TrEMBL record:
UniProt keywords, alphabetically: FAD, Flavoprotein
Record SUPFAM superfamilies: FAD/NAD(P)-binding domain, FAD/NAD-linked reductases, dimerisation (C-terminal) domain
Name used for this protein in its record: FAD-dependent oxidoreductase
Domain FAD/NAD(P)-binding: 5-311
Pfam families on file: Pyr_redox_2 (PF07992)
InterPro entries reported for this sequence: FAD/NAD-bd_sf (IPR036188), FAD/NAD-binding_dom (IPR023753), FAD/NAD-linked_Rdtase_dimer_sf (IPR016156)
Organism of origin: Roseomonas populi
PANTHER family registered for this protein in UniProt: MERCURIC REDUCTASE
Superkingdom to which the source organism belongs: Bacteria
């Protein structure tokens, strides 16, 4: 029976990252993947990112007209757009091809992996013993148990690349972040879009900021229907229709499911590994799975984005360094424009400092209507978490990520260029100092200091 130091089940973002790092450290690594890898099929994440980027350009051209720049409608050539999507996917594919990982010295196994014991994994008719394993199987879209849907064609986050033409009227069922992103992107690219969500949009995010996202979508022409259940789906003259619980009937050409994602764990035989049932995986602060000290999990397999998990896995699994009792909060984002980013701990009794980006020099100069930053400060004056709604918010969030766990006063004193939207972050941080300015002792010192030469 072959042996391996690290068995990585799943070649998604977290799986590829930890496999490459472990191999660079000289460990024997076996990477199992049952699905398509780079170059074998379009990557849905690249397709979605390309659509968002192209949509942002189209919106910028339209919005510029209110400032006297250009005139007339902005045409969208869908054939040229599809050509760009294919080119973007081809450019990104080499980073995730099987050949790339084989060239690193990683053993690639193409097939569905399953645990055969606490330290064994099987796939493609063979078994391997491992010292440590990582479950990085990702997540899959939730498919609604909606009457009539089983006989209709529908799109999900994973099948989005199959969209060959611009929808005449796209119906989106669900208010998960992906649905909001695609609603805005396709509306900006000329499609009519109706989003139906039985629950409040983007659960788990700051409600004031989610409302800012909703206003931005409505400005882009998205029809938002919130708080109403879909009762049935059926065929219609031009495609399909959704019948809502309140009796409303909405016809469209395509339907996209955006009800969130669930961990992809079926077929792993977790019981054989001593982990338990096929339900959600419980992990500690180092992402080690409860029930088997040889096994870790990351990314969608534990219901979170996988981008930051490689560093946690490296510390906990590869170097066996101490880790917190609980897993760190992942960074969550809605990649609309403005983008909503939430990172760190935004719950509990932390002090909240808030500042609108419109009250910055750049915000005023560029007429930024939707923009807000909220800082969550713990009892020791350190930044515990943050929420940010801002144009370009995905990049601005880096300033907040670097400040997590550090004194919030450091953000207030950051040497920023002027004018900058990130000045709103600094201004919110300065609110933490404001009460101290009324301290009599501090005012007495300032009074003495003013007399010095």
């Amino acid at each position: 029976m072959p042996e391996t130091d690290i068995a990585v089940i799943g070649a998604g973002e977290a799986g590829r990252g930890i496999a490459a790092l472990a191999r660079a450290l000289g460990l024997r690594v076996t990477l199992f993947e049952r699905g398509a890898m780079g170059g074998e099929a379009p990557d849905p994440a690249i397709t979605a990112a390309s659509l968002r980027g192209l949509a942002a350009r189209a919106a910028l051209m339209r919005d510029s007209q209110r400032f006297g720049l250009g005139e007339g409608p902005v045409a969208v050539d869908w054939l040229a757009l599809r050509t760009h999507l294919a080119a973007a996917d081809a450019d990104a594919a080499p980073d995730s091809t099987p050949a790339r990982f084989e060239a690193m010295g990683i053993e690639m196994v193409r097939g569905a992996a399953r645990f055969a014991g606490p330290d064994r994994v099987g796939a493609a008719g063979r078994e391997w013993t491992f010292r440590r394993a990582v479950i990085a199987t990702g997540a899959q879209p939730v498919v609604a148990a909606l009457e009539g849907l089983e006989v209709l064609p529908y799109l999900t986050e994973d099948t989005l690349p199959e969209l060959e033409d611009r929808p005449n009227h796209l119906l989106i069922l669900g208010g998960a972040p992906f649905g909001l992103e695609m609603a805005q992107a396709l509306a900006r690219l000329g499609a009519r879009v109706t989003l139906v969500s039985p629950m409040p949009l983007a659960p788990g995010f700051d409600r004031d900021m989610v409302e800012g996202v909703a206003r931005a979508l409505r400005r882009d022409g998205v029809n938002l229907v919130e708080g109403v259940e879909a009762a049935r789906a059926e065929r219609a003259a031009d495609g399909l229709a959704l019948l809502l619980a309140d009796g409303t009937r909405i016809e469209g050409s395509h339907i996209l499911l955006a009800l969130g994602r669930v961990p992809r764990l079926a077929g792993l035989d977790l019981i054989a590994a001593g982990i338990g049932a096929e339900g959600p995986l419980a992990v500690d602060g180092g992402l080690r799975v409860a029930g088997n000290r040889r096994v870790w999990a990351a990314g969608g397999a534990i219901g979170r984005p996988g981008a930051g998990d490689v560093a946690v896995l490296a510390r906990s699994m590869l170097f066996r360094l101490p880790t917190p009792a609980a897993a760190p909060e992942p960074t969550r984002a809605i990649r609309t424009e403005p983008a909503l980013v939430q990172l760190g701990n935004t719950a509990g009794e932390a002090q909240r400092l808030r500042w609108p980006l419109a009250d910055t020099a750049r915000g005023a100069a560029e007429d930024v209507g939707e923009g807000l930053v909220t800082l969550f400060v713990d009892g020791g004056g350190r930044l515990a978490g943050a929420s940010l709604l801002a144009p370009g918010g995905m990049e601005m969030a880096g300033m907040l990520a670097m400040g997590l766990g550090r004194p919030v006063s450091e953000l207030g004193g950051a040497p920023l260029p002027h004018p900058a939207l990130s000045a709103g972050i600094a201004r919110a941080a300065l609110e933490h100092r404001a009460p101290a300015l009324s301290n009599p002792a501090l005012r007495w010192v300032a009074g003495i200091a003013k007399r010095l030469p």
